[in-house]
C-alpha cells in the first residue's frame, strides 16, 4: 500500500512547547497563564506579528517554552489565511526542531473556523510520502499537535479532509514502477470499499469483451494491462437508479508518450499523470465519509502509455467503446482517449444527471493558467458556475475556458469520426490545445451535462502554497466534494 505520513493530532498532556498566536493589533491569544509572559516578550523584542513570523521563548527553568506565531491583524480572515498559519506553524516546528506543540483552545483563538483551518493547514503541510530512502535526510519532523478535548470535532473534520487529500497526493507522487494500473486499482478499491462503496475493476479481458478500444489502445504497449475501476455509492436509496453524478478521472500511471515519445524535462514528471484519477478517488472518499445523500459513481480508466511493439501508431484508426472511430494522430494525446471510454461507460451504465471529468490533459494549459488555476470547460453555465463556486470555497481555483460549436473543426478527421489531435492552425500551435482536448471529450459526453477540468498545471506545485509543500497538491479532491455537497443542498432546498 502506498504509504504516507502526516502529523498526529492528540490530546496528550506532554508537549515540547505551547503555541500562542500574536496579532499586530491586539494581545496574544492563548492560555491566560502564558499570555502575560508572551505580551512582555512582544514588548521587549518589538515583535511584529506579521503573518508567518515567529518568536521562540525558551523560558527559564520550570517555565514552559512558548512559540509565538504571528497571524497579522485581527481583520484578517478567510480559510486560506488560517491554512497558511497551519503551514507557518509547521515551518516553525521544523526550524526550531520541536516535535510537539499545544495549540490554544478555539475559544481562545476567537474565530470559530480558525482552529479547523490551522489544523487542516498543518496536516496538509505535514504530509510526507514514504519514498524508501535509507539514509535519514536529517530534517526535523514535526510529530504532534496537541489540542483541547473540546476541539475534538474540529480536529476530526480537518483529519477527514486531510486524509483524503493526502492519500490522493501520495498516489500522485508514488513512482510508476510502484503504482501500475493493477496496483492502483487494487489500492483504490480497498480504500473505497472500506468507505462503503461497491467497487468492480474490469481487466483487459472484460475491456475487450465490452469493446473499450480507446482505453485498450492506450495501454496495449505496456506490460501492465489497463484497468477500469467503477465505484458506486448509493447515498440516496429512495431514488434508486437515479445517478446524480458520474466522476471520471484520467489514470495514466505513467505517460511516456508512446511512439510519440516524450523527452526531458517532461518525461520524468509523468508519474503524475493519474492526478485526475486521484482527485476522483479522493472526492469519492470525502463524499462517502460525510455520508453524501446522493447516488454517485466514479469511473476511473487506468493505463500506462509507453513505447512498445504492440502499441498504437500515429495514423491508426481505433474504435472506442461508444462506437465512434478515432484517428490517432499522436499517441501522446492519450488522456482524452481513456476519458472517452470512461465517459461512455458512465453514460451507458448509469445515465448520470451530470458528468465531471478531471485530468492532467495538456501541457499548454500550464503555460496559460500556470499553477493557480485549473482550466474548466463545461457544456452548460449552471454546471460551470457551480464548479467555479465550489473551487472558490475550497481554494482550488478554476478558470472557465470557451467551448462552442464554432470550434468543432478542431477535432475533425479526414478518415474517422474524430481525431485525437487539434487542428494545427496557421502557425501549427493548435495541436496541443487544451480546447481541442475538451472538444474531443465533448463528443463522447453527448447530451449529458458535462464539465472537464484540466489540472495539468495545478496537480503538482513547484512552490509552497497555503495548501501544500512543493509536490502533488491533491487538487480537485475537496473541490469536487464541495460541488457534490452543493448539489445535495440544492435538491433539499
Ligand atoms: N499528460 C500529458 C499532459 C502534460 C504534458 C502534462 C506536459 C504536463 C506536462 C498529456 O497526455 C499529453 O501528452 N498531452 C499532449 C497533447 C498533445 C500531444 C496533443 C501535450 O500537452 O503536449
Ligand atoms: Mn500524453
Ligand atoms: Zn498524459
Describe it.
The chain has 493 residues and is α/β, with parallel strands linked by helices. It has two domains: 4-160, Leucine Aminopeptidase, subunit E, domain 1; 176-492, Aminopeptidase (3-Layer(aba) Sandwich). It contains 14 helices and 23 strands. The protein has helices spanning 32-45, 79-96, 106-109, 114-125, 152-173, 181-194, 204-210, 213-219, 275-289, 335-350, 363-368, 381-394, 434-445, 477-492, and strands at 4-5, 8-10, 17-23, 26-29, 54-57, 66-70, 100-102, 128-129, 144-146, 198-202, 227-234, 245-249, 251-255, 295-305, 317-319, 325-327, 355-359, 373-378, 397-400, 418-419, 450-454, 460-461, 471-472. The strands form five sheets. Strands 10, 11, 12, 13, 14, 17, 18, 19 and 21 form a nine-stranded mixed sheet that branches. α9 links the parallel β13 (251-255) and β14 (295-305). α5 runs antiparallel to α9, α9 packs across α14 (477-492) and α10 (335-350) runs parallel beside α13 (434-445). The chain is elongated and about 80 Å long. The relative contact order is 0.11. The mean pLDDT is 95. The structure holds ligand BES, manganese (II) ion and zinc ion. Ligand BES binds at residues 255, 266, 273, 330, 332-335, 360-364, 366, 421, 431-432, 456.
Amino acid at each position: 500500500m502506498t504509504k504516507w505520513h502526516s502529523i498526529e493530532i492528540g490530546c496528550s498532556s506532554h508537549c515540547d512547547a505551547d503555541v500562542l498566536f500574536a496579532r499586530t493589533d491586539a494581545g496574544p491569544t492563548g492560555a491566560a497563564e502564558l499570555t502575560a509572559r508572551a505580551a512582555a516578550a512582544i514588548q521587549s523584542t518589538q515583535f511584529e506579528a506579521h503573518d508567518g513570523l515567529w518568536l521562540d521563548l525558551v523560558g527559564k527553568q520550570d517555565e514552559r517554552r512558548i512559540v509565538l506565531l504571528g497571524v497579522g491583524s485581527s481583520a484578517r480572515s478567510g480559510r486560506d489565511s488560517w491554512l497558511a498559519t497551519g503551514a507557518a506553524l509547521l515551518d516553525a516546528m521544523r526550524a526550531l526542531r520541536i516535535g510537539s506543540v499545544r495549540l490554544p483552545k478555539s475559544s481562545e483563538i476567537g474565530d470559530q473556523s480558525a482552529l479547523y483551518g490551522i489544523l487542516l493547514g498543518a496536516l496538509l503541510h505535514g504530509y510526507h510520502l514514504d519514498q524508501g530512502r535509507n539514509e535519514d535526510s536529517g530534517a526535523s519532523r514535526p510529530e504532534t499537535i496537541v489540542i483541547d478535548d473540546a476541539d475534538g470535532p474540529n480536529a476530526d473534520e480537518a483529519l477527514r479532509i486531510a486524509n483524503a487529500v493526502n492519500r490522493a497526493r501520495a498516489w500522485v507522487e508514488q513512482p510508476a514502477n510502484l503504482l501500475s494500473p493493477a496496483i492502483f486499482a487494487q489500492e483504490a478499491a480497498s480504500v473505497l470499499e472500506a468507505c462503503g462503496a461497491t467497487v468492480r475493476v474490469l481487466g483487459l479481458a472484460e475491456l475487450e469483451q465490452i469493446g473499450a478500444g480507446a482505453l485498450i489502445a492506450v495501454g496495449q504497449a505496456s506490460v501492465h494491462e489497463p484497468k477500469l475501476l467503477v465505484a458506486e455509492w448509493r447515498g440516496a436509496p429512495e431514488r434508486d437508479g437515479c445517478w446524480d453524478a458520474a466522476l471520471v478521472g484520467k489514470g495514466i500511471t505513467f505517460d511516456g508518450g508512446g511512439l510519440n515519445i516524450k523527452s526531458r524535462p517532461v518525461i520524468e514528471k509523468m508519474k503524475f499523470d493519474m492526478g485526475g484519477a486521484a482527485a476522483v478517488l479522493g472526492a469519492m472518499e470525502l463524499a462517502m465519509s460525510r455520508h453524501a445523500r446522493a447516488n454517485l459513481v466514479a469511473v476511473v480508466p487506468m493505463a500506462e502509455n509507453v513505447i512498445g511493439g504492440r502499441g498504437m501508431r500515429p495514423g491508426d484508426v481505433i474504435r472506442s467503446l461508444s462506437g465512434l472511430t478515432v484517428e490517432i494522430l499522436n499517441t501522446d494525446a492519450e488522456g482524452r482517449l481513456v476519458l472517452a471510454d470512461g465517459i461512455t461507460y458512465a453514460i451507458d451504465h448509469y445515465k448520470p444527471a451530470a458528468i465531471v471529468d478531471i485530468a492532467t490533459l495538456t501541457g499548454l494549459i500550464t503555460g496559460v493558467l500556470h499553477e493557480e488555476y485549473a482550466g474548466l470547460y463545461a457544456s452548460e453555465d449552471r454546471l460551470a458556475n457551480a464548479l467555479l463556486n465550489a473551487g472558490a470555497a475550497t481554494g482550488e481555483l478554476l478558470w472557465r475556458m470557451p467551448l462552442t460549436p464554432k470550434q468543432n473543426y478542431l477535432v475533425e478527421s479526414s478518415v474517422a469520426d474524430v481525431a485525437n489531435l487539434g487542428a494545427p492552425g496557421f502557425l501549427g500551435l493548435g495541436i496541443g490545445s487544451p480546447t481541442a482536448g475538451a472538444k474531443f471529450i465533448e463528443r463522447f459526453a453527448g447530451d449529458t451535462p458535462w464539465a472537464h477540468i484540466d489540472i495539468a498545471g495545478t496537480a503538482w506545485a513547484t512552490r509552497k502554497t497555503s495548501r501544500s509543500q512543493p509536490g502533488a497538491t491533491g487538487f480537485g479532491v475537496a473541490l469536487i466534494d464541495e460541488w457534490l455537497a452543493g448539489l445535495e443542498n440544492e435538491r433539499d432546498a
